[in-house]
Amino acid sequence: MATAPDTAERDYFTDKSVLLDPYDFFEEIRARGPVVELTNRDMLFVTGFREAVEVLLNKADFSSMIAGPGPAAPLPFEVHGDDISEMVAAYTASIRERELMVNQDGDMHLAARSLLNPLLVPSRLKANEAFMESFADEMAREMVAKGGCEVVNEVAVPYVTLVIADLLGVPAEDRQQFRDVIDAGPPPGNMDAAEDMTQSAALTFMIGYFMRYLGERRANPQSDIMTELALARYPDGTLPDLVEPAKAAMFLFAAGQDTSAKLIGNSMRYICENRDMQDRLRADPSLIPAFLEEMLRLEGSTKMTARLAVRNTRIGDVEVPAGKRVFIGLAAANRDPRRWDDPNAFELNRPRIKEHVAFGRGAHTCAGAPLARVEVRVLFERLLRHTSEIAISEKHHGPPENRDLRYEASYIIRGLEKLHIDLKPR
Ligand code: HEM
Fold this sequence. Notes:
Blueprint: H1 16-20, H2 23-30, E1 35-37, E2 43-46, H3 49-57, E3 62-63, H4 85-94, H5 106-114, H6 122-146, E4 148-150, H7 151-168, H8 175-183, H9 201-219, H10 225-231, H11 243-256, H12 258-273, H13 275-283, H14 288-299, E5 304-309, E6 313-315, E7 318-320, E8 325-329, H15 330-333, H16 369-385, E9 387-392, H17 394-397, E10 420-425
Parallel strand pairs: 2-8
Antiparallel strand pairs: 1-2, 3-5, 4-10, 5-8, 6-7, 9-10
The site of protoporphyrin IX containing FE (HEM) has 27 residues, from helix 11, helix 12 and helix 16.
């Protein structure tokens, strides 16, 4: 059973020191057990790998209703009794028009997710990869010619945004608009800028755009991916309201933009600070996928997700009452010493590395994981191919012994705000 901390616990959600570097905090909590009640928040905090997987796979007892809003947001109803499943189902049904698949449960979630099927087939991803290769090559050449760049916002964000736009078949002439509205939005998981995801200006723009675009395809089908999305049916054969595929399309940008861009920044920092690894990857690019899996485990860009207990249940040997919010520390589970030998060390080709939970697990496992893996690999291949050395810019971040590198103050996302790099041509 969990013990109380000796000193006052820092607040995960608002304490800047924890937001900027969560790893010591995770270890402080882990020292009290793999599943503990926080002292200053009404929630359970899971740092254990086995326990995190257990909750993620337990769809019967846990709802995803709070995955997006997060475990610190107030519940929209009062909890009574040992089983709140009906309350949760009624609430989710009532807001169906605005909610996103990540917050849905059961059949409603399966139906929403099924609309992505036409996009995520191997042939579509293959075509998308061809776009990634030419776009990444073009960007890499351009940045090398300049001698350097700011990799997170100048390279990664436009790259991953346009990759998703290409996946969806957004015409080339409209793509700049997507970049512009997305660039204007705040990063997710920042309590200061807490904004309901469905209310943000960028996402409102996208819903409107896709509604119009998909509507045109329903009226006049063409032989393109947007038509397939417009005509996709639910597993029971019914045709969804137009807003549903529009939400699915829009959600790809919300879910897949910052996450991938920050993974690019975190991984780039690593190869700048570990020149041996940079040289190995440059000499043998077939090592890049294994390198990225270990980066996902150690510096994955999604620190956490959350679930709500819908009935009295357990996680491991900890009793969980109905209505309890559960913080699932994905980044903590990925460093659980009971699961990973020497968990804080980077190890290329770690056994069974793909079992990390950087992409979640179970019904809500990241739908974009195959895409994320390919897009980040392709960008690294091209940047390494066109350079003989990539280094952190001392001009912007100071010398190695006194680096000024800042992380996003987000409770969800782990990633550098900026990373300026110097690129030496090959
Ligand atoms: C390194 C990059 C990424 C990371 C670390 C990441 C992480 C995650 C995680 C942890 C979840 C599960 C959330 C939960 O269980 O509550 C998730 C869900 C999701 N991700 Fe990703 N993601 C990444 C990139 C992408 C990309 C590129 C896309 C799309 C193009 C994408 C689309 C989605 C979608 C649609 C879901 C919701 C799935 C569902 O609710 O069924 N993600 N992601």
